[in-house]
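Table 4 source record.
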Amino acid sequence: MNTLNQLEPQQRRSLLVLFVTGLLFWMSIAILLPTLPAYLDAIGINQQQIGLIIGAFAIGLLATRPLVGKLVDTKGRKLVLLIGTAVVAIAPLGYVYVTETPLLMAIRAFHGISIAAFTTAYSALVVDLAPPKQRGEIIGLMSLTNPLGVAVGPAIGGYLQIHGLYREIFWISVVSGAISFIAATQLRHNKIAIALERGESAKISVWQILTSPALGIPALVLLLVGFPFGAIHTFVPLYIQSLHVGFNPGLFYTIAALASFSARSVIGSRSDRYGRGVFIAGSLCCYTAGVACLATANSQWSFIFAAMFEGLGSGTLIPMIVALVADRSLPHQRGQVLSICITGLDLGIAISAPVFGWVAKDLGYPGIFAIGTGMAASAIGVFLLWGNRNLRHSIGFSLGRDRDVYRRG
């Protein structure tokens, strides 16, 4: 908090407005996570169609990531943030009034645009507002909107679902999104406009990003982690149910959220002092341990430890990767770079459900998480070997003993 007090009043105000915007956005999204599938089932849609509808979210998300990245750099962060919050406010209305599967898939894909636009613009804005020497700390603090929103939203949605109040759930999602949009209109930000007025080019191709060791490796790490991440959020409830261990699946995600919150609140400032590398490497080790616990789970304690490690790992990894990518990119290209790198995580999550669903037929749930453990472990290897300019720098960077030679600002 001392860092926030040291900022200029306008910076503090913008960050506060942005935090409120983000919290309400994630509440709007998260209130539907446990309730939308149950609602679709209640109105008579079969399981296969429910899977198609829920999965359509990834279509809108993946299809628009590169586009919103360019818009963030060429038209401004605020405009794209407004697009994201407007979509999250409008989309839930479709669930209220539409019951046909094709139209629901279209609405769900439209809803996916909100995540693509919001997360890219939000991350770029936070980086713009954070002084470089406190970048990690402020990114960590501002990323708390996600675990807070994901903790509050499902709690409200679950309570209303018990009483069958699905329309009220959707309307709360609409109102949260609308207030998030109103809050976003209060932001004042013109840093990128200044860069563009100077004639600085915002153009950078996807190929340039992916083939750059400085940026392509973080994207690959997120892709590898995305597979077990998606599996955890898809198959853990079914896995727990199949083992009959008397453990509430909701408690798994609550523990993970608390661990994520704890990590995000303290790691950022340390990364400004010791570098991003040691915390990214540590988070990957935690994440691998969490997935390994799931691969061998046979009791309540197995799932408790898995949730703790998973929450600590993801809660550290995602903001640290954002900080690392921000360090390695120019301000007027940051939106495109962030959008492409984060697409690695999106793609892994989107592919994991159908791929691991097929694996489950032959290897069962332990097999899913055994493969996921291997992928998370391979992410550690990738970062240790290629996370910096050469092997020596990469290992030193991962141990907190060497600087990031790719840092640009």
